[in-house]
Amino acid sequence: MGWDHNISETLERRGITLVQIDGRKRRLAYNTFSSLFFQVTTIICGFILPRLILTAFGSDVNGLVNSITQFLGIISFLELGVGAVVQSSLYKPLAEHDEDQVSRVIKSANRFFRAIARILLVYVVSLVIFYPMFAKQQFGHAYTATLIIVISISSFAQYYFGIVNRLLLTADQHGYVQYNAQTVAIILNTVACFILIKLGCGIQMVKLITSLIYLLQPIVIYLYVRKHYHINHKIIYAEEPIKQKWNGIAQHVASVILDGTDIVVLTMFASLSAVSIYSVYFLVVKGVKQLFLSMTNGIQSLMGELWANGEKKELKDLFGWTEWMIHTGTIFVFGVAAITIVPFVQVYTKGIMDADYVQPLFSFFLVMANAGHCLRLPYNLMILAAGHYKQTQSNYIVAAVLNIVISILAVKHYGLIGVAIGTLIAMVYQTVWMALYDSKNLIKWPFKNFLKQVAVDALTLVFMFVMTNMIQMATVNYVAWALYAVIVSIASVMVVIIVNMVFYKTNTERILKGVTGMVSKWLDLAAFRTSGGGTGKK
Fold first, then answer.
1. pTM here?
2. I need a surface site. Which of 39, 213, 272, 484 has the fewest CB within 10 A?
3. DSSP classification of residue 359
4. For residue 499, which of 530, 524, 467, 523 has the smallest C-alpha distance?
5. Cα–Cα distance measured from residue 480 to residue 488, given in angstroms and rounded to the nearest whole number
6. Is the model more confident about 261 or about 375?
């Protein structure tokens, strides 16, 4: 109570009333819950649909669908990080209820993204003509071309009149509107695809219905924005309302490359079955990564506030805690994923015999590469919070080049493992570079702290593999896998606690104290309700 009271007093001194605080808390709760529910729904449906496609159409068609989707995603290169800048440009006018400035920003953003939509049309036509020629696939030109067209419909709708409205809602802390719309669209799409596939429809029809369902999503959001916001689309502005529009280009391009290179390289230099294998493993890794990343929301803004206020000691304390938490959480989550992913894929692809989905070495490198993406988070968050875009852009460019060059060179000799190695090396480079940059230029965090943390990470990972080496999945089904995953997780938790009690005793005790406190409160509440205290009984 005292802590909350002090925060309330501080905020009120800054002119923020309790009504505003309650409103922000409520919107934060809505956004957090709807975002988490959306992520969970995406993961669940993301596992259901590929399995249906694999069973009904085979690995080559699944690989073709994932390849086309990734090639269409390349158009996001042209966004050039402008989306993040648009969102930042909306904060102040929304807070000040300056409808004219909001309208100017929206109009400028619409012009930009509609230009991208027109470029997308040209790009789709180019893909229709050239993709069947360079992609290593055995389908007819018409078959592949029609699939490209139907998959591109929802992408066009997003850039033409969807993305700016989503940025507006997110900036105004009404992101739950778009999250709920996306969740409904995903569920409807999964049900519709299930019915169509069971009825024996072709993959083109299935993907056409998918695009039409996702087309409804930006329409619903557009109608909501039109009803609740007064946007003047005819407003005229002499000066560009989106300041620093081109900041963050290197970061954005590198992010697109790091996320999308592998499937593009496999399409051009391997086979569609290799793309299918990659996409199945990436389903698991992406789901784990997205859930983990969703738990770090809000840290960047807090770091930014402390940096702006010059509260260096508080910032250093927060950074140290964040570094340890993210590293420890990443090693546990991705360590368990590395151990359990192959058995899961065995269950997931049971009965599918047109490709070899048991790829233990590839799975290890892929999981570690994406773990690297999370391990670099505390250093990247600090760079973004401080606004050091220009100063760090060389790091992003080098990482992107490393990923592309190594992946292309290695895929010819090592196939799937080669592209995973390319991503892993790029992530290792980027993480070390960012840690050094933060140490020298931002919070002066000693680099030896980073080296100690990495050594503890490696030691923890080795002990996790040793401890779980003798644990085997009893049979190939989901129940057996779930039991196997639970046992592996318990053993891994024990390892994490023991290792960190040795090297980070204070942090570990702090976490254990918090967990035991929460459990104690839940037990007390359960006992209270059981005794009738929660029902008014005497």
1. 0.73
2. 39
3. -
4. 467
5. 12
6. 375
